[in-house]
Amino acid sequence: MQKITKAVIPVAGLGTRFLPATKAMPKEMLPLIDKPILQYVVEEAVQSGITDIIFVTSYLKRACEDHFDASPELEKLLKQDKKKQHLYEQIRAIPKLANFIYLRQKGPYGNGTPVLNAEHVIGNEPFAVLWGDEIFDCERKPRLRQLMDVYKKYGDPVLTGYQISKVETSKYGVIDGTEVEQGIYQVKKIVEKPGPRRAPSTIASLGAYILTPDIFAELKKTRRGKNDELWLVDAIFKLRRRRPVYAKIVEGTFYDMGSRIGWLKANVTFALKDPELRKELQSVFM
User: What structural domains and CATH numbers belong to the chain?
Assistant: First the structure.
């Protein structure tokens, strides 16, 4: 079983749900307390054993690239101030988190395109895909590590599953599958936003995957779908005809940082975990 060391993170989207804030700033760089959302995603990957991060970007996303680069002038300034040594260490550590590779997205719109763009870097290896605006807050084990453990056991593609309420089945793709062991399902199909009456389960399919390299051949054969876009999930389910696809119900709390309410909830929750911020928030709001 090949070890998974590479992760593709598409960051070429326009972030229209956060306009006008994202007119000039990538949505992935919006702050969650004092770090950009994208750094949380990268840290999750690194904590799960990923060594190579492949960003698929566009000309609008230079800020993402710059954030993970060295900043000698800033480091020098912080190093000279004894009160800012902790900031110096944090800034200095960012470029060392992983080996960063940057590709410009080429091809049709859709979340399948950035994955296909990374084929020549991935080669014949299993790999992870993470979205730059979704995070999980997991106490015991990072979300990606949970998926990787399932791949290690079964050797086939693994999707993120997440328990939701019946009402929320109108907001997400919902997994129809057979439970093969506790919290792990062999997937039959995903029903897009079915609603409570049509939902085959209350397990949402969210955006992190462990994929095998045969996904590239399927992506090349996949026709464009909704909105004339190339959809990764369409290729995954073409692949499912030839091999099993699994879903792991992730243990943790999901935050959709691409939505205003998800971003607000995450900031409040993370602030309440910080002793200093919690005290200040309580003095103002409670």
Answer: 6-285 (3.90.550.10)
AA letter at 118: A
Q: Which residues of 136-153 are buried (b: 16+ CB within 10 A; e: fewer)?
A: bbbeeebbbbbbbbbbee
What are the tens digits of pLDDT across the range 45-76?
999 999 999 999 988 889 999 999 999 999 99
Distance CA 111, CA 215 (A): 13
Range picked from 16-25, 36-45, 55-64, 271-280 for highest mean pLDDT? 36-45
The residue whose two tokens read 């090949």 is 2
Look over the chain and give the mean of its residue pLDDT values, rounded to a whole number: 91
Q: Please state, in angstroms and as integers, the Cα–Cα distance from residue 112 to each residue in 6, 56, 158, 160, 241, following that order.
A: 17, 11, 16, 17, 18
CA 23 to chain centre: 22
Give the separation between CA 211 and CA 254, rounded to whole angstroms.
21
Rounded CA-CA distance 127/228 in Å is 26
Radius of gyration of the chain (CA): 19
The pairing of strands 134-137 and 253-256 is antiparallel
The separation between CA 174 and the C-alpha centre of its own chain, rounded to angstroms, equals 18
Per-residue pLDDT at 139: 87
Angle 235-239-243 from CA coordinates, rounded to 5°: 160
Q: What is the pLDDT of residues 157-188, one digit of tens each?
A: 999 999 999 999 998 889 999 999 999 999 99
The secondary structure element, H or E, covering residue 117 is helix 113-117
Nearest to 250 by CA among 169, 180, 162: 162
